Amino acid sequence: MLGDPRTERVTGDDTAAVHRRTEDVGAEDRPHSGRTPAVVPEAYCWSHLTSGNSARALWLLLLPFMIVNLAHWMRPSAAGRPRLVRAHGALLRLLALSLTVLLVAAACEVALGLVAWQCAGSPACAAERSWLGFLAPGADGSGGWWSQPGRRLALAASLPTALTVLLWWLSRRTWSAYESQSPWHGTDGQPAPDGTVPPAPAPDGTERPDLCLPGFWYGRRLVARLRAAHTAAGLLTVAAALTVAAAGHDLRSGGAAAVAGTVLGALLAAATATVLAVVCARGRGEGCPDVRRDGPLVRHLPGAAAVLLALSVLYAAWSRPGWQSAGRLPGDGTFAVLALAQGLLVAGVAVLGVLLHRTTRVPRTALRGLGSAATAMLGCALGGVMSGGVAQRVADWLDGGATPGTGEGPIPGPPTVLTWQAAVTPLLLVLLLALLCVHAVRVWRTGSRLAAHAHLAYPGAEPDAARSRSIGRTVAAARLTDSAPRVVGITALATLLLGAAAVAGALLTGLVPGEAADGTPAVLDGAADTVQALGSWLMGFGFLLLLTLGRRAYRDASTRRTVGILWDVGTFWPRAAHPFAPPCYAERAVPDLVWRMATWTRRYGGGRLVLSGHSQGSVLAAAAVWQLDPATRRQVALLTYGSPLARLYGRWFPAYFGPGPLRALHRELDCWRNLWRATDPIGGPLRLPDGDGTAVDRGPLADPLAYGRTAASPLPAPILGHGAYQADPAFAVERAALLARLCPEAPGAPEAPAKDVAPSPAPALPAQHAPAGPESDGVHGPRDAPPGQDAEAPGRSSG
C-alpha cells in the first residue's frame, strides 16, 4: 500500500497496526525546508482481524448467527419511537436465541437421537458398526452397563455439551480481544456521575447520529450478558433432551423416578424462563461506554444450567431395566416448535419494520422496512439447512442405502419436520434458478442497449462493437446490485411459505413425504419420494460444501482472504443480537483510527489529514470520523471512492447510514469528495446536497480510461470496475484539492475557490495515510505532494 518494501510499524500489534515507509518514520520531528513539510503517507492494516489465521475458516459455521445479527442493524429509521425500537431489538434477540437452540438441538438429534437412541438400540444397525457394540443391547434384551437407553443418552450428551462449551469459549476469547477496546475519551461532553462521557450535541443543536455516540463501539457488557444467556440455553437444551426422554418412560411406570422427573422438568422450565427474561430485558446502551457488570443472576446463569445438566445426566443414567428404545427420540417435535416460533418472530419483526418505516420514511429503504425481517428469515433458513443437512447425512450414513426418514432402513430417521423441510428445498432452488435466469436475460438486454452508446463517452473514438459490448455488459451487471432487495424479498417470502408448508405437512399428516397414505396415487407417492430424496441430498450437499470451503480456507491463505471479504461486510456491526456470531472487527479498528487521528492532531496542533477509503474502508472511515470530537473533525478531510455508503449501507441500514445521518456528517465535515464509476457493482454516488456550493460526488468516472488504442494508452485499457481508483487521474486531482482546502497556504497546492478555503491556524504538519478498503492496494502519495496528512481508510494489505 505504501509503494515501498522498506516499511516499519509505527504503532499497533500483529493483529492491526499503523505502518510507514522507513524514511518517513519520525518525519514530524525532523527539520524540514520550506514553510510546511511534505505529505507523509501512513498505512493502517487490519486484515488479521478478519482473515488472519487459519481458525477464521471455522467462522463459516457461524454464518446463520452473523446473518441474524446483521438483521438487528437493518431496522428502519425511527425518530421518536423508542418503544418500537426496543421491541424490534428484543424480537431479534429472541430469534437469535432460537438459532442457538436449533444448532444444539441438531447436535442432540445426531448424537442422542440417531446414534444413541436409534442405531445403538437397533441390533441390525449396531451390528454393522463395531464401535457401537458396547452400547447395543443383546438379542434377548440384556446387555452391558451402557446398553440401557438412558445411559446411552447420557454418554451421547457429551457431544452437544462440548459444542456449547466450544461456542462459549470462542465468544469469550474474541470478546476479550474485540469488544474490550477502550474508546476515545476526548469528547466535548461533561463527565457523567458514573464517570462516563455523554455525547456532545451537533453544532446546530440537533441530535447527533447514533454512530457519533461514545458507547457505540463498546459492546462489552451486552455481549457478556448474551453469552451467558445463550450458553445457558445450549446447556438447558441438552438437559431437556435427556429429561424428556427419561421422564416419558418414568411417567408410564410411576414411582419416585416420575416425581424426580417432574421436579427436574419444573426446574428446567424456570431456568428457561430466566434465560428468556435476561435476553429480553436489556439491549445495547450506546449513549456512553457501559463499563458496569451485570448482577450475579446473569453471571451465574451458565453455572446454574450446568448444574441442571449434571442432574439430568444422573437422572437419565438411573437404572431402568425394562426400558427399550423404539421409534424416534421423544421430544423430536422440538424442531417443529422452533420452526413455528421462528416464523412468528419473523412476522413480528416484519410488522414492527413496517410501522417504523411509516413513522419516518427514508427514501430508497430496502424493501420499505422489511429488510430486517427478510434477512432474519434467510438466516433462519440457513440454520435449518445446516441442522437438517447434518441430520440427513448422518441418518443416510447409518441406515445404509435407504432414504433417510422413509422408514425403509433399520432406523426411523430424523424428525418428520426435517424430512419435510428437505422435500421443499428443491422447490426453493428452482425459484432461485428462475431468478438467476431472469437477471441474466436482463443483463443481456440492458447491456445491448447500453453498448450502442458506449463510444459516445469518448470524443473522437471509432465505434468498436466488441469493446462497446464489453463496456455495456459490465455496466448492466453492476446495476444488478440495485436489484438485490427484490431478490432477497422474493427468496425470503418463498422460504417463509415453503417452511410453513413443511411444518403444516409434518404436523397435520404425521407422515414423511416418502410414505404413502391410504388412497394416495402411486404417481404422487413416487414424486414425493423423489423430491424428498433429492432434498435430503441437497441439504447434505450444502452442509458438506460449507465444510469443504471452510477446510480449504483453513489450508489456503488466498481462499481465506476471499472468505475474509465476506467477514469485512458481515462483521462490521457489533454483536447486538447473537453473541456467538463472528466478532465485530470495527470495535477494534474504529477506536484504533480514532485514537491515532485524535492523538496525532493534538500532538501537532496545526496538523491536517486526508482520510481516504475504498469500498468497506470508506465505511470504516466514516465511522471513525463520526467518533471524532468537533475540534479534531475540523482538521480532517474525507476522500471516499468505490464507496457503498449510500448504495448499500444507506438502503439496508437506513437508521445509521441513511440520507439523514450522511447529511449530518457532511455538515460537520469541511471537506468531503466521493469518486464513483458506473461499472462499479458496489460503489456509487452519495447524492448529498451541495448546500455549501461544493459537490461531494464526482462521477461517473470514465471506465475504461481509454476506449481504444491511443498515444497515451497504446494497449487496450482494462475495465477497472470496483478496483484501482488510484489509477484514475481524478484521484490525484481530488486529493490535492482536499489538501489545498485544508492547507491553502501550502506551496504548490492547487488554487481552490475562495469560498472553499478555510484558513489554517498553524502550518500543516506531516500526515498519515491509512489503507484502502478490502480490495484496494492503498494510496501512493508522492514525496512532493502538498502538505497535510493523507490517511487511507482501513483495509487489507495485498502485499
Short description:
With 799 residues, this protein is mainly alpha-helical. The chain is built from 24 helices and eight strands. The longest helix has 38 residues, at 82-119.
Write down the overall mean pLDDT: 81
Number of strands: 8
**Main sheet properties:** 5 strands, parallel
The level of helicity is 40-55%
The proportion of strand residues reads 5-15%
Radius of gyration: 30 Å
Could you characterize what this model shows?
This protein is mainly alpha-helical. The protein has a domain at 7-31 and 585-707 and 717-792. 52% of the residues lie in helices and 5% in strands. The protein contains 24 helices and 8 strands. The strands form 2 sheets. It has a 5-stranded parallel β-sheet with strand order 7-6-5-4-8, sandwiched between helices. Strands 1-2-3 form a 3-stranded antiparallel β-sheet, with no helix packed on it. A hairpin with a 4-residue loop joins strand 1 and strand 2. Helix 3 (82-119) packs antiparallel against helix 6 and helix 3 (82-119) runs antiparallel to helix 11 (334-359). The longest helix has 38 residues, at 82-119. The termini are close together. Mean pLDDT is 81; it is low at 187-199, 516-525 and 746-799. Keywords: Membrane, Transmembrane, Transmembrane helix. The chain crosses the membrane at residues 57-74, 94-117, 153-170, 228-249, 255-280, 301-318, 338-357, 369-391, 418-441, 487-511, 531-550. This is Integral membrane protein. It comes from Streptomyces hazeniae. Residues 765-774 have a biased composition (Low complexity).
